[in-house]
Every structure is written in structure tokens, then in C-alpha cells.
Amino acid sequence: MSIIIEQYKNTVATLPMQKTWTDAPLYKYEGFWYHQGFWFQSEYASFSLEAVMASQDDFHAQPTDVFLATYPKSGTTWLKALAFAITNRTKFSYGPTHPLATTCPHDCVPYIESEAYINNPSYANGLLATHIPYTSLPKSIISSGSRIVYICRDPKDVFISFWHFKKKYIDDSSTDPIMLEKAFECFSKGVFEFGSSWDHVIGYRKASLEWPDKILFLNYEEMKRDAKNEVKKLANFIGHPFTEEEEAKGEVEEIIKLCSFDKLSKASKDRDATPNVISNDIFFRKGVVGDSVNHLTDEMIQILDKITTEKYEGLDIPIYNNDKFVVFEK
Ligand code: PAP
């Protein structure tokens, strides 16, 4: 894949632009908002719009590839770990030398719009990740018949997770409520990196309803509630089902344990992430369901829930709300 993505800068400059809550400009492309690329520590920053465009032009999927697709902060790190552990379970023992015990899941499963065009980690073997919305995916992902696993999460928790992540990323330790309000406004309008979280989910959800054998749709809250069932579902879908013997041996439980928040965050602590831009422990904060209520006002909660109800109506997406699952059925 081309690493010369500066060529896309001119195109980006012609697109609609809006400032987001951090004052950084975002550009609207194919209905979603992205930040522009910039050089950071001699590498081109990941997840830029230019990198998305380069992926669209240069990335060629194989029919056997499996893509883990997410809106950021919806469970990417966890899903990467689980899919990697499932796929490679005969290669590594679960001890201290397992790649997930020594590196971050992000080092094991590259993003197509980030590391995959810079290098080609040998661990990946057909397992790739992306934050690109469904309608903007490189065409070969759909035409090659590759499989996609998508995970969604309650938008309130996504927002609060993103808010903390971003503040850490820009090194802002203040708790200024105005900044939270500004971020909230941008998030609810969908003027956020990778655009509207709701539209992102809807694109993959509709595709999964149409092609269930090609797109598996998972839910962070459901993984928390019944990890065993969800991990088995994931293993079946990606073509590595557990045998009866493996199940009897407790293999599913081993994988869940290996990929638990505590284990992964410990392994990642203080290690540098590929592409060496940020420290890995930034991907681990609390890892629980419903923490957003500790940060959002009642009014903010109502606004986000209203958008979710309206947007997800008829799409059969389970959302955890007030201690129970609410499904906006068809
Ligand atoms: P990314 O898209 O930038 O990679 P992503 O992994 O999707 O981020 O989301 C990070 C969230 O997943 C964090 O949520 P929080 O801010 O609400 O705490 C992080 O703590 C959580 N997370 C990371 N690993 C796990 C895990 N093994 N189990 C459960 N949650 C996890």
C-alpha cells in the first residue's frame, strides 16, 4: 500500500470543514468527519482522512481476511485481543510469553488505515481492523467476500470514553465542564472523529441484517454480560470454532481470562504502541458498562438516549439502559 499519502492533501483542502471541541478542524468526506493528517515524530499520524483515502485506493483485501470494524471507543482493543487469541490459540501457550501478555492488542492486529500500510506485522495473518464507516470501506473488502466483525456500545459510554481518551491524548488534565459541554455538542451533532457514532453503527447494522454470513454484529454490553456465549459466536464466525474437547478443557474461559481488562491493561502498561505515537495504557480506563452516568448531566443523558432511540428504531440493536437491555425492534 502506498505510503505517499501527502498527495491527498489537496483533495482534503476542498472538503467542508468544521472545528471540533478541541479546536482542531475536521473534514467531511462521504458523510463522515475526519481529521487531517499531520507529521508526528517522523511518522504520518494514523487515522487521518488522507490515510482513509489511501486505504480506499491501495488496500486489497483477500477473501480469507477478517476485519474487526468499530467506531472508536466501542470495544476495539478487547475485540482485537479476543479475535487474535482465538485465531492463534494453537500457536501460543497462555503463559507469560503469549503476545497478548507481552504486547498491546493493537500491536497484534493492525488497522488498515494506520499500521497496515506502514508495515505488515507477521502476527496479523489475515486479521485486520478498521474504524472506517461501512459505506467508505475499500471496495475490495466487500467484493472479495471477506468477513467483518462489528462491535457497538452504548453511545453515552462511547462518548465519555472518547472524551477521556482525547483529553489524555492532548495532555489536558483539566475537568473544565465547558469543554465537556463543547465535546457533547459536537458528539451529538456527529461532528466528531469518524463522524456520527450512530450513523457508523447504522451502516454496519444494516449490512449485517442483509448479509449475516458476512457481517457479525456484536455488542460491548452483551460481551460483558455473557462473554462465553459471545466468544463462541465470534470463534464460529471467524472460522475457528471451539471443539467439544477444547470446551471441556476450559479453553473458552482461558481466552476470556487472557483478554480480560485486568490482564490486558497490565500487559500494556507503559509500553509504547505501534506506531509509537501514544502509550498503550491510554486504551484502558475502566472497562465497565454505564460509567457515563458519573460524568453526564440528566439532560445530556436524555438527549443522547433520544437520539439513540430515534436513530436505531427498527434496527434491532440492543442498548443497555438503566440496568437493562432495550431493543429498538423492527
Ligand atoms: P480504540 O477504538 O481507541 O481502540 P476501544 O478499545 O474501542 O478504543 O475503547 C476503549 C474502551 O474499551 C475503554 O473504555 P472506558 O473508557 O469506558 O473504560 C477501555 O477501558 C475499554 N476496554 C479496553 N480493554 C477492555 C477489555 N479487555 N474489556 C473491557 N473493556 C475494555
UniProtKB/TrEMBL annotation:
Top EC group: transferase
One Pfam family linked to the record: Sulfotransfer_1
Keyword Transferase: yes
Annotated Sulfotransferase domain residues: 63-314
Enzyme Commission identifier(s): 2.8.2.-
Keyword Iron-sulfur: no
Superkingdom of origin organism: Eukaryota
Keyword entries, A-Z: Transferase
Family to which this protein belongs: Belongs to the sulfotransferase 1 family.
Protein known as: Sulfotransferase
